Amino acid sequence: MFRERLLEKLLEKYVGVSYAGAVLAVLYKGEARLLLSAGYASLSPEEPMSTDTLFDLASLTKPLSLASVAARLVEEGLLDLQQPVASIIPEFAGGPGGPSPVKEKVKAWMLLTHSSGLPPWAPLYKAAGNRREVFAEAFKLPLVGEPGAKCVYSDIGYIIATAMVERIAGQRLDSLFDDMVSSPLGLKATMYNPLARGYSGKIAATERDTRRGGVIRGEVHDENAYAMDGVSGHAGLFSTAEEVGLIAWSIAESLEGRGLLSTPMARTMLSPWVEGPCTYGLGWRLYRRGYRHAGDLFSPKAFGHTGFTGTSVWVDPSYSIAVVLLTNRVHLGRGTPIAEARARIHNAVLASLR
């Protein structure tokens, strides 16, 4: 069904240019119809990539873990998307000058749609010695925009959303993910902190960091997530290409009443909650023409996400397809270009459909 040799050549073309190695998984109607690998899981020592390699998913954690858990909490009546965040985390609206009327306007849905007005990023790990202190530093940050006004991508919003779902459920996010996502879907290789959980399979290396003893492999790459014991809603999840596709496709299947979520919840999740520089549903970026990292051929119903380490997933219910491209781009350095590779590979996959 898919032009395997053409896609193999495309994957290989960008080895050493856009990434050290890559795995491409294409699911059609929920079944893996294509699994390809190219390049290297690690350059030193040199290890070839394989289709079952585990990857640090970086920001794919946002839709696959945090947003999925939040959706399940909504279904169980534990989370109200219109609820002010400060009603769950009172210290979020506090500060040296007393309560902040502006921060009191931030609602749960705004954290999940990158429209809270919180800053995109901050080096919280520099002032925090543990997970609790990372949360405390995040709560103190002032808003840089009007709540609910427009989409401005924010890791900080997802760190605070992590605290929000943990307080509501009384469990840490990794445990919530296991109970609400991984177990229902029968996943075997999707988890936080794989080394601590005894995972013995191949894991793709990410960046060399002398502060952490060399090349990072099997521990989360993101500094703030690392300071949070590897468990956050903005980064920290590890998985294989096939299992990323299974989670993402389960959201598409939910639109027809067969997936992880109820149909009303899935439709709510994949509706455009906020527009601006980007258009988001709950956790998922909604496809719009001109978004380079997705390519040109997805339909208006497509949704997906990318991750800083070089990961991406795009799902198109119109074509019954999920395309997962996992790479260890940062193994070559943080400035490694990835947009062209993503666009051309996605276009080639979609063009295989007849």
- Give me the CATH superfamily of the largest domain: DD-peptidase/beta-lactamase superfamily
CATH topology call of the largest domain? Beta-lactamase
Q: Could you say how many structural domains there are in total?
A: 2
Number of helices: 10
Tally of strands: 12
User: Using only CA atoms, what is the Rg?
Assistant: 19 Å
Question: Pairing-aware structural class of the strands and helices?
Answer: alpha+beta
Spatial separation of the terminal alpha carbons: 9 Å
Helix content: 25-40%
Order of helices and strands: HEEEEHHHHHEEEHEHHEEEEH
Structure, explained:
The chain has 354 residues and is of the alpha+beta class. The chain folds into two domains: 4-66 and 175-350, Beta-lactamase (3-Layer(aba) Sandwich), CATH 3.40.710; 78-169, Methane Monooxygenase Hydroxylase, Chain G, domain 1 (Up-down Bundle). It has helices at 4-13, 61-75, 108-112, 131-140, 155-169, 173-185, 223-227, 241-254, 263-269, 339-350; strands spanning 21-28, 31-43, 46-48, 55-56, 191-192, 208-209, 214-215, 237-239, 285-286, 303-307, 311-316, 321-327. The strands form three sheets. It has a seven-stranded antiparallel beta sheet with strand order 3-2-1-12-11-10-9, sandwiched between helices. A hairpin with a 4-residue loop joins strand 11 and strand 12 (321-327). The protein is globular and about 60 Å long. The protein starts with a helix and ends with a helix. The relative contact order is 0.19. The mean pLDDT is 97.
